[in-house]
Design goal:
It is built from 21 helices and 3 strands. By secondary structure, it is mainly alpha-helical. A 3-stranded antiparallel sheet has the order 2-1-3, with no helix packed on it. The structure holds zinc ion (ZN).
Amino acid sequence: MGDYALLAALVALLVGLTVGKAWERYKLRDGRWIDRRKARESPHYILGLNFLVSNQIDLAIEELTRAARLTTEALEIDMVLGNLYREKGQVGRAINIHQGLLQRPKLTKLENAYVLLCLGLDFRRGGFVDRALEAFTEVLRLDPRNRYALVNLEKLHEEQHQWLEAYHIRQELAKGSEPEEQPRNQQILAFLETQLGEVARKQGDAPAARAKFESAIDLDPKTAPAYLSLGDMKLADGQVEQAIANWERLIEVSPERAYLAFDRLEAAYPRSGRPDHFPDLCRQIIQAKPNDWRARLALARYLAGRADPAGAFELLLEALVSNPHGLSVHEEIWKTLLRLDLERTLVERYMDLTGRSVFYLDPHVCLRCRYRSTELLWQCPQCHEWNTFVEERITPAKDTEETQN
Ligand SMILES: [Zn+2]
């Protein structure tokens, strides 16, 4: 179970506690005091919470199940139990529990909304998109400002590439956000706007596409893909200067993403009568940001392609110091060394530098706390657990679900 899953369970628990408070008040007003505290004051409940916080999910389920048996009034405990089963991957069981809760008599509107929210999360996890959409929409009918429902609806629409629907939901979320969350909202809106631009571009509607990309930049001036696409459209129209202007603007507003425009600019400068401008640009970037290894790599490739492999090699060694784990740097170094007929002194300099800069030569990671080490350790120095280290390999995103469990 990942950290996210634990967080989701805790959030659900807090939501449950809030609902619980509302429920108690309701019951008091109703004049019928039903002691749901009986469940909360039981040792099983306290133990369950402790196991939950320490990420021991099976034990948490065991204790919370015992606590839930003490009364049928502690709705939130059952809600959390369902959520824990969902996070364990037992979606069917989670759906059963949450649907059972919906059958309980006298649910308040708010309780109803939260149980539906849990059910929506179950459906989403199980891949039942339509039923998830239905559940979250129903939550919003009962509780129009429910942020969890809005965020989940947004993600469902994004997964189906319904960018406009997602955009409207993000606008709704932005209305209820704190001022410090607004930049993030603007950023998300800008990315969604960029996606709408890409759709228009694929459909051949260039003016609409351009308008979307420009409005994305208005929303957040750091939206790199919008500059790239605007430039690509200009280039396709034969407007090389304007294409270059868009890509240079990207470098200005978002220097950390400058490299995305390198290949494009390298090809475009000669077409605008500035054949030597690309290396100048790289040198300017290196001067402004001394540890920019990507500009060094780009300049090295440029020089190597123009009969200066020795100059390229020096740049690549500098790039290696800034990013010793970057395979693309090592690959370029070997290509350059081959061009230089594997000159022994250069190979030795490379090996010497690698030995001194590569921090994790054989990376291992603690499965429990993600602590990294350069060798296999039997006990983790951070979380003190035994035998939790595995060799760290980068796996494709699709496999992460399996490796986490
Ligand atoms: Zn650890």
